[in-house]
Every structure is written in C-alpha cells, then in structure tokens.
Design goal:
5 helices, Chemotaxis protein chec, homodimer, DNA-binding, alpha+beta, 19% strand
DNA sequence: TGGGGTATCATGGGAAAATATGGTCGTCAA
DNA sequence: TTGACGACCATATTTTCCCATGATACCCCA
C-alpha cells in the first residue's frame, strides 16, 4: 500500500484530536509529523508526509521568484501551511485556521488522493463527491461520443490493459510531481 | 484462467464477510488485497487486483494534472476507491460506502467482466441484466434493418424471455445513480 | 461404470490483534 | 496559576487469524 486511497470519517474528541485512518498511517510509514496546506479552491486541507511538502516546494522553485505567481504560491504554500505532530496513538490536533477554512467541527472526512490526502467537513465532502461523480459522468459521455478508441460506455476500467505491461506503468502513476515510489 | 468470467451470488455473513468466488481468486493469484472503485453510472462497484488499479491510474496520468478533468477523475478513482484486504479464507469485508452505493445487504452478485469484476446487489443485477438484453435486442434490430433484412434472432443467448413486458426495464439502466448514502 | 474417498469451497464462530476513541496526569510556558 | 500539549493508560468496537462443518465437485480404482 503506497498511496492514499479511499475515505473514512473519524470523530474529533473534546481535546480536538482526530485519528488518522490506519491505512493512511501505513502510507506515512511512521513519520512523526504531517504537512498540511489549505486548498485555494475548496474548503479543504491537503496533507501528506515530508515528500508531499518537498513536492510542493519543488513546484515553487520552478517558478520565477519575482513573478506574482511565485509570490502568491509561496504565500499560500508556506505562509498558510502547517506541520502537525502525530501523537503516539496516531492522532493529530487540528489548528484553528484549519478548522475555520474547512468548516470542520466534530467530524473529519479523510479522503485519499494518491500522494496526499484531504481533510473535509463530511457534509461538504458528500456534496463535492456528488458533483465530482456527475462531472465524470458527463465528461465520459462526451468523450465516448467522440469515438474515443475502444471506450464503450463502461467505467474507466473498460479501458484497462491486460495485466502485463506493468513495467513502465508505475512510472507516471503518481500525479504531477512525485518522487518516491514503492 | 486469467480473466474474470461468469457470475456467482454469495452470502454476506453476520460479520459482514463475503467469499470471493474461487475462480475469481485464482485470477487474483493470491494477492492479499483487491482494489475497488464505484461506478459513476450504476449502483455497482468494480474490482480487481493491483493491475486493475494501475490501469485506472494510467488513464489518469494521461491527463493534465492541473485540469478540472483530472481533479474530478482522480477524486473518484482515488478518493472514492478502496483497497480491501482478502482474509485467509478468501473473503472480504465490504466497506460502508460501498454498501451504500450498491445497496448490497446480505447477498452479493459477483460478475466477471474480463480484467475486472463487479459487485452488484442481486436484484439490481437482474434488472440491469434484463435491461441490457433488451438494449442489445433493440440495437441489433436497428442494425439489421440497415441491410440484412432476414436476420432474426438466433443468437445463442436468445432465451425464453418474453421480449416485451419489460418495458420499464430499460429505464432502469440508469437506476441508482441517486444513491442515498450515509 | 459405479461407488467411495478426497479435495475444494462457501460459510460459520471463537479468540486474538488492531483500531478509534476517551480520559488522566505531569510538564512547560505564558 | 492556568491552559495547552504530550505521554500514557483504558476500553469498546472492528478486523484478522485460525479452526470447524456441511455441501459439492472431482478423482481414482475396483
């Protein structure tokens, strides 16, 4: 298990602690803290281990340091970021501005996104999920009307290759910027 | 045997476990977990081994990582997916959101689809199957009216189903995209 | 070819391990 | 001193492992 998958809803206790789902913890492989940034697009926080942070910084370093783009990105990526300790039970304490940004109160939806995961307020998560599913439905429909190779009206799966070909496969599995595999 | 074929209905026990059909297990070749995604069109889950997951992700990696398209697909393919452990007896435990999406309660229809297989709630599976047959019948009819006027139903599959009477059936092709979840 | 024995399979249940969650008690700093 | 936080402990629930059973399919040999 080497990427964040699936979603779980966990409770926040009186002290503000939440358990990171066990399968996410195994991906984090015992790191004692996680890095969190706030999404600019949605009321959601995005988190991952050290490699997640590094990937973000690497993206930043590819920009012109005097551009406005750089200014804004670095502001959000660094200024609005957090490094949160994971306690001995695998829990984290949410910061105030994380709660404010996400609307999280007493429950958190942990949503795996590959090389990072998201923290949603559960109701918002469900809304967004519905919207995402609808969008995918529409996108696929318009795709198949183009005569997209083999794609018949199935799931994304309908396109999958026979099991072989795994050699090059893992190369770009991860999104955008990724560095560690395994 | 390297493809998932045919279909089987197995029971879910009190603890929520259900056996993966033995012939499917041989295709999985001893992998200790399976990957599952939820169909966006139907109340069905689609599952396979590691190669199934990789094939899906490969599809993702062809997209622009900053596009909305990518965002939506990856959300569904990763955030709404599951990696489920297979126990020593070859059983899995269905997650809550999988049950919510499929409507599965105490029985599961495993349906082979080649390089992956589906999990259906048996009644819905039957309805869908009816609807699918009807569609095929209609499509064939309109096709054959283009030229081959004589071709009448003699497919090996044409069984004793009174073709009509299932008027409502095709409507059900879409059923369930309004699943009520938690 | 028939019959008995054997392997495989779906299913069930008990017990141990893991997990999510709750609470207590010091410590350190404001 | 108070309040936040970390380490530590407690517990209910869930998951996993192990063993058992009835049923069926399969095979071998007389």
């Amino acid at each position: 298990m080497d990427r964040f998958l699936s979603n779980t809803i966990n409770r926040v206790d009186k002290k503000g602690r939440v358990s990171i789902p066990a399968n996410f913890r195994t991906v984090l492989a015992g790191q004692s803290s996680i890095h969190i940034i706030l999404s600019v697009d949605h009321p959601v926080a995005e988190a991952g281990g050290a490699d997640f942070m590094e990937a973000n910084l690497r993206r930043l370093s590819a920009m012109d340091p005097f551009s406005e783009e750089y200014e804004m990105w670095s502001f959000c990526l660094l200024g609005d970021a957090d490094e949160i300790k994971v306690d001995t039970e695998g829990r984290i304490i949410l910061t105030d501005h994380l709660r404010a940004h996400t609307g999280i109160e007493d429950e958190v939806a942990f949503v795996g996104r590959g090389h990072f995961f998201q923290l949603w307020e559960p109701k918002r998560f469900n809304l967004y999920r519905e919207a995402a599913r609808e969008k995918v439905r529409l996108m696929r429909r318009s795709l198949s009307s183009l005569g997209d190779s083999t794609s018949q009206s199935n799931s994304p799966a309908s396109q999958a290759q026979p099991a072989s070909s795994r050699a090059g496969a893992s190369a770009n599995l991860q999104m955008g910027n990724k560095e560690q595999d395994t």
